[in-house]
Amino acid sequence: MEDKQEMMRSLIAELNQAADAYYNGRGELMTDYEWDAKFDQLKALEQETGAMLPDSPTHKVSEDNIAGQKEEHEFAALSLAKTKKPEELAKWAEGRPVWLSWKLDGLTLVVTYDGGRLTKVVTRGNGHIGTNITHLAPSINGIPQSIPAQGHVVIRGEAVISYEDFEQFNMESEEEYANPRNLASGSLTLKDPEEVKQRRIRWIPFTLVYADDEIKSWGARMDFLEQNGFHTVEHEFIGQPTLQNIEETIDRWTEKVTRRACPYPVDGLVITYDDTVYAQTGSVTGHHATRAGYAFKWQDESAETELEHIEWSCAANTINPVAVFRPVELEGTTVRRASLCNISECERLGIGGEGSRISVIKANKIIPKIIRVSQSVGAFTVPGECPVCKHPTEVSVSETSGTKTLRCTNPDCPAKQLKKFVRFVSKEGMDIDGISEQTLAKFINLGWVSEPADLYHLRDHAVELSQMEGFGERSVHNLLNSLESSRKVEARKLLYALTIPMCGQDVCKRLLAAYPLEKLVEEAMKTEDPTFFATINGIGPEKSASFVSWCKEEHNIAMLHRLLGELELHEEQAAASGNRCSGLTFVVTGEVYQYKNRNELKAYIESQGGKVTGSVSKATDFLINNDLESTSGKNQKARQLGTPIISEAEFFERFGGTNEE
């Protein structure tokens, strides 16, 4: 008995430590597969011994440690019982109509509206008490500030990040995250709403908890949410939940997962009674409401194989370990490789060298993942030099998660450049069709391409290209045409294509909304203040410093100038949202007081159909200067031309547009 209790204590410690990391955005300490196995083992021991020790996760909901004001939930947010057997779902349904939906893999948030206005957003926490993060609501897609319904409305939903946005973030970030859920939970611990916004979190409602008008059908409740502007979790009605019908529905939804028809990570399915009155009659066992719903988790198909070697793959900012092993068949596909994410994950698994025995799954039917090392052979070694350029490597440790990541110290490492070239030709960048990562690697190894401008001289190698494996005259023709088409490019796409650290698509748009590209670079080159651009909404000191630092590097500017010589650049003009300044040209000079800076005033004028130039000319309709008596060159020029000089106050009186509008 004592041995079993000691085993229970050990399992509780492991599970609680892993849950703490899982719910708070830190490094993953065990896979879902391992968690489920240990949880089931603990549950079996508790049933066998009749004992339940303090802090056991079988009767305690893990809570987040998100900083902020704690708040008790109006309606307890209890978890659902889980099964991997369709038979248990059919038994639970009792022949009553049910709905099936995704079990989204993110962070549960409870959102409340009163009188049509958003009043609070609270994390699930331990199910009874969560953290109020209402200040982050504008940074989370899918949480409107107001809705048509005027009563008291309480909604539960999941904050998730799509696979596409996750992969994009990892490519741009200095830190590699293990999975979208880990990134989502870590993002909600951030204090800066603008930084949270750039993580592209989406909140997807999965149930209406309360509305003043009693709605007794779960399906009707979801319709109510849709009518109020929410995009709810995908769901399907099963009117006769026989075992056969449930299995057929699960099979269809499983097939959706394997082809990524759902853009968001899911870790199972949920069935819910359509009769919400009946659903509320169940009892509460541990931390489960017995009739609130039932979660189905897939039986992960695992296979044991032998590790051949660990390949270290260079990305834009990191060198990531990838396990290469003897091929195995999983979920109908052949799997040969699985990312190990970082050094910390390798250490956690106890990975060894060639010949080690490992177990592999496809997590949530999609991502190959090593779940266990059953026999470690040899030692796991971290390369002291970059596998590509042979320069020294360094291990960096994240201040927030403690995750160990390997980096190459050579800023000009060809492998780093390869990833940058991949981003350069991407759809979000220069949108050049016909050039894969493998093709770019060939061009670099052949010496044809060493910087972006070289791509526009591939025509010089057309004959050699047509003789390369995988190329023919037609594909070469299409590639060269695509390159020519890409010469006409918007500034924001070019800026993004340069792979400037911490400058993703959103940052590029914000910088270029404040300055034209060449002016932007010019200001960065001459400023002595790394936070020069921090006043631009959504930029902040770190992103400003990163951009300024990039522009201070002579080789970067030389590369950009050579590239600009190949392109026809045009600045993107934001569509006007009004016409108060339509057809008028303004010049803004001197201090402004109603806006953070002149760029905000410029943005308003352009949003109202006006134009802002840098110098006074015959085409100028108004010079805006709060110092009307100034003897500056612009004021003198305006007086010579008879151009009206107006203050901000007069501008607002004539054209509206305080920054509070």
Which tags fit this structure?
5-stranded mixed beta sheet, OB fold (Dihydrolipoamide Acetyltransferase, E2P), D-amino Acid Aminotransferase, Chain A, domain 1, 661 residues, 34% helix, globular
Polypeptide structure, described:
- By secondary structure, the protein is an alpha+beta fold.
- It folds into five domains: 2-49; 70-296, 2-Layer Sandwich (D-amino Acid Aminotransferase, Chain A, domain 1), CATH 3.30.470.30; 303-399, OB fold (Dihydrolipoamide Acetyltransferase, E2P), CATH 2.40.50; 414-570, DNA polymerase, domain 1, CATH 1.10.150; 585-655, Rossmann fold (3-Layer(aba) Sandwich), CATH 3.40.50.
- It has 22 helices and 26 strands.
- The strands form eight sheets. It has a five-stranded mixed sheet. It has a five-stranded antiparallel sheet with strand order 16-15-14-17-18, sandwiched between helices. A four-stranded antiparallel sheet has the order 5-4-7-8.
- Strand 14 and strand 15 (319-330) form a beta hairpin.
- The radius of gyration is 29 Å and the shape is globular.
- It starts with a helix and ends in a 6-residue tail after the last helix.
